[in-house]
Every structure is written in C-alpha cells, then in structure tokens.
Sequence to fold (489 residues):
Amino acid sequence: MTPTEHHDAHHSRRWLILAVLGLAQLMVVLDATIVNIALPSAQKDLGFSDESRQWIVTAYALAFGSLLLLGGRIGDLFGRKWVFIAGLAGFAVASAAGGAAQSFGMLVAARAAQGVFGAMLAPAALSLLTTTFTDPAERNKAFGIFGAIAGSGAAAGLLLGGVLTEYLSWRWCLYVNLAFAGVAVFGAFTLLTNIAQANKPRLDIPGTVTASAGLFSLVYGFSHASQTSWTNPTTLGFLVAGVVLLAAFVLIQQRVAHPLLPLRVVLDRDRGGAYLAMGLSAISMFGVFLFLTYYLQQNLGFSPIKTGLAFLPMTFAIMFSATTSQTQLMPRTGARPLIGTGLALGAIGMLYLTGIGVDSSYASHVLPGLLVMGLGLGLVFAPAMSSATLGVDPSDAGVASATVNTMQQIGGSIGTALLSTLAASATTAALDTGGAPTKAVVAQAAVHGYTTAFYWSAAIFAVAAVLCTALLRSGARAPSTVGEPVFAH
Fold:
C-alpha cells in the first residue's frame, strides 16, 4: 500500500476519527474535575482523613504530569494507534478498580494508574488529530472542535459528577469512564490505521529519567505547598530538585542523538508561544473551577448539580468561541490576535468575578464573568493547540502533543497550589479580628480569599496576554508547513 493510499484510507474516515479522539479527550479532561465532586462522599464511605483527601487528586496529577513526555514519545516510536488503544484500555481498567475500591490505598493506586494510562492516551489523541487533518480548512475546524472539548470538559465534569454522586454513587464518577473508553476503543480498532516510524530512534533514557523525575518533583512540590507552606523544607526540596532536574534535561537534549523532546519543537516562536499560553491560562482558570465551586455551594447554597449547571454557560461560550475562532478567524489572522485577545478576556472575566459578595446573586455577579471567561478561553485553547502542533515533523507529533498536555497539567498543578495558598492567607488575615469570629465574619473572610485568588488569576492572564502577543508571529501560518500523515495498516 502506498503512502497516498494510507493517507486516503485515513482521510475518508477523518470525521469519525475526530469523534473517537474527542471522546477520549473528554474522558481525560472530565476526570480532572468529576472526582472532586465525589470526594466528600468517597471520604465518608471509605473513612479517610481530610489530610489524606488531597492524594485522590494528587496521585492522578503526579503520574499524569510526570509521564506525559514519555507517553508522547512512545506513541512516536511504536505507532499511535496501539498506544492510544492501550491508554484507553488501561484507563478503563484503572477506573473500574477505583470505582470498586474498598480502601483508601486502593483508590489512590487506581488514580495513579489512571494518570499513567492518561499520559499515554492524551498525547496520542492530539498527535493522531494532527496527522489525520492536513487540509488547512478542515484542520482548523477539527482543532476548533477538539479545543472546545478540552476547554469545556472540566466544567462538564462538575455537572456530571454532581448528577452521578447525587443520584447514584460516588463510585459511578469512575465507572462512567468504562462507557467512554469502550466506545472509543471500538472506534479506534475499526477506524485508525497504524505504522511505526521507518527509522525508529532509540529511546532517550537519561532524558526520560530527568524529565519524568523533574516534572514529578515540581507537581509534588506545588501540591505539598498547597497543604503546608512555600517555606516548608519538603516543599522547597522538591521544587529545587524539579528545577535542577529539568535544567539537566535541557542540557541532555542538546547533546544526545535521539532526544526525548527535540529542542526544535519548543524553540519555534509560534509553538513556544502556544505552550506558554496553555500553561499560563491553566494556572489562571483553576481559580474559577476551584474557588467558584466553593463559593456557589458554601456561600450561595447551591447543590452539586446546581453548581454544575451554573458552569454550563461558560461551557457553551468556550464551545462557541473555540469553533468560530478556529474556522472563521484563524485562517485570516493567525493565532497571535486570537490568543492575545482570549487571554485579555480571561483577565477581564476574572476581574468581574472579584465583585462577588456574601449575598451576591448568580445572574448579576457570576454569570457575566463566566461568559466573558468562556469566550476568552475558547479563543486560547483551539488556536494554541493547533499552533503547538502545526508544522512539526510527523516523527515529533507525539512529543509536541505531549508538551501541550504537559503545560496544561503542570499549569493546573501550579495554579491549584499557588491560588490555594494566596486565598488561604487572605482568609486567615481577614479572620484575625482579635476575638472569636462570628458566622458573618467567617463567610466574609472566605469570600475575601476567593476574590484575592481571582485578582491574582486576572494578573496572570494579563501578563500572559502581553508575553504571548510578543512571542507569537503575526499573520496566518502557511498551509504547506503542516506535516503529512504517517499511518498505515
């Protein structure tokens, strides 16, 4: 079979392939928030402490964030179809084990296993998308849809988690992945074609070890900071180790024959700007999901389901702007004005949310900010994902895709730790009234903590808008730079 026939075979099924890849991406993104809603019920059922609760989230983030680059390169080396299917199947098995968990240890182990297989699955999905859609107009449409899923999946997870927890059990927040994975595995087997690289490079062992250990140390350090402090010796030790290991990783990549992450992938201005946009927006957007969830439930008295519904307008706004920007605007303007505008809108939406009070209404004080934020994030995610993989050599598509996911995952970990610490400090300062605080003072202090986090998120969005606009090239990229697909039966 000739390369053209490979291309045509994949090309004729491209929209069905997009549906399968989108479903897999939705499953991975959902899992970042769906379990959060289930945590109180799981804690009551399995009897673990508040201090232990963070590990249900951290175990997933640690495995996922630290192994993404390796997962991306494995797809490049051995063929993305089989790595994609293995990731889906492993994720499903780990989810089933987590849903059936009878102890805290079993649940944490299952979440870590989900992270391991997610690190194989996520970059394989994005690299398959990159190499399947090569026509510029169709590529923009596909990345618009994929970016909308990536941006709105976290909000959808809050709603689905609330429904499942309230009407079934917290265990169904994990069991639901079996349905997603089952459909996606069937689709992958029947639709995808596969071939390993003709000139298969050897795996970069020193690079793999330093990158995985460095990313693990960073994620653990930031997670530890949110539970203790930034000056805690363990926190500082892991953060310093992470920086040193990643610096060593960069030096290794300059010297080895077959680098895990070829520096040409990240040193391109457009790809570098796209990675930066994904990382900084992930830091900032976690302020919405984390603190607004608390605010809606604890201050406004929303149920888990009502909280999930409250985020739906943001989800629709992301879907609208992601698909519109990618299909109508990106071909004319390129990514620079879209990403810059999106980040600026993120800052404006966050600033609006700083106006919430103890007795604010959702319609007037929350909804407008969510809509502006949603429009902004849609302008960021789809163009950034597209730019981050545009023009990359097909043999590097997996690791380029993995870098997008890594920036999003590490950004989320940093954002959770940084904003949690800032909010907690602000809340503590507001409670320091010299006497026993009243219920009203406690509520006001909590809101002060949330708005402090929103101010910081707005500042990060604003800085990101300036940096990314300066870094990204103006104008649309030439279609001829898109890599050709490399898949066969």
